[in-house]
Amino acid sequence: MKIVRENITSFERGGDPYRKLGVGRAALIEKWFSDLGISSDKYTIDKDFNINVYGDLYLGGTNITSLPDNLSVGGWLDLDGTDITSLPNDLNVGKSLFLRVTKITSLPNDLSVKGSLYLYGTKITSLPDNLSVGEKIWLDKDKKDKVYVPEHLKEKIKYES
Fold this sequence. Notes:
By secondary structure, the protein is an alpha/beta fold. Helix content is 11%, strand content 19%.
């Protein structure tokens, strides 16, 4: 894994040098991946703590409840059956995003999914106006006309029975 940091030439008096260097935050992100059994050659963390995961990230059925901020996944992201309740801002998914049977009730405004978005089994009642989805958005059949869908996304909606 490659962590890029700017050179720090001075420390704040009384400040925490680990916080200034970002050591604590990077270590937490690394531990999160390690606890999930994801090797360090599958992701990078840049100097601004943007996290790029190469390929797919399968977390379905794990005990995760949240994702780190500034996460980009080159492949699909599977969160099916997790206790996750919300997604971080600036989440970018290179392929499909699977949120089936999760506790998610809303999506962040700046979510970008290049593939399909699977939402059946969720309590989502509204899609954000600036949601970006490249393929289909799958909802429960019984949610037809019960979920607010922005005009630009209506042709992408499909219903799962």
